[in-house]
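U., I forgot to send this yesterday:
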Amino acid sequence: MRQFRRSSTSGTNFVYNSVRRVTKRTPVNRRNSGRHGIFILSRVKRDVVDGWLDELRDDAEFNIGSYVDCFLSENLARRYIGERKLPLSQRTKSDAREWRERESKRKTKANLSYAIRKNDKDIDYLGMDDLAFTVEGKAGSAGEKSLTRDAIEYAPVRNVVGHTGLLTGNGKSLLSLKHENIKARIKTLVLEKPLAKNKSVAKKNARRKH
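Result:
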């Protein structure tokens, strides 16, 4: 059977037209015509679904870079918080506790007894809003460079990716730029306030010189 070309018509018309083309070219005797028709129809349905999957794979490839940007941005903030041992506010701890409890209930409902998270700290349950606030220690204001301002613009596009929606070109570009801005901001914070490990090393080197 010759492979069908994709059609711009709806799925129903595509199936109907495909079956009509096949049946015209395939000699079928009356005794087996019923079974043969069912076979052709099921074959065409599979071809339609395969076509959908091909299109979705193209969409997935387009979106995958944006997922990576989200993963790197949020986990970079978590890494900074962990390295600096930054404290979480009571409200942030409460949010993390709530999300952990929700996930636990869903695991119970799904009959999952094994762990599904590699890390299970409070910061692993926080979104970019709470992570940015924890990193900065306050909400950023207009005219001030702050991760909390990045988080506001980042949120709606990140939610599209989180719900497996297909991004537009502008949405994809915005997420990529936000990732670059978040990365640059954390680099700046590290330079302005060296990590605790670096401070201890600097003190040791100073003592040796004296």
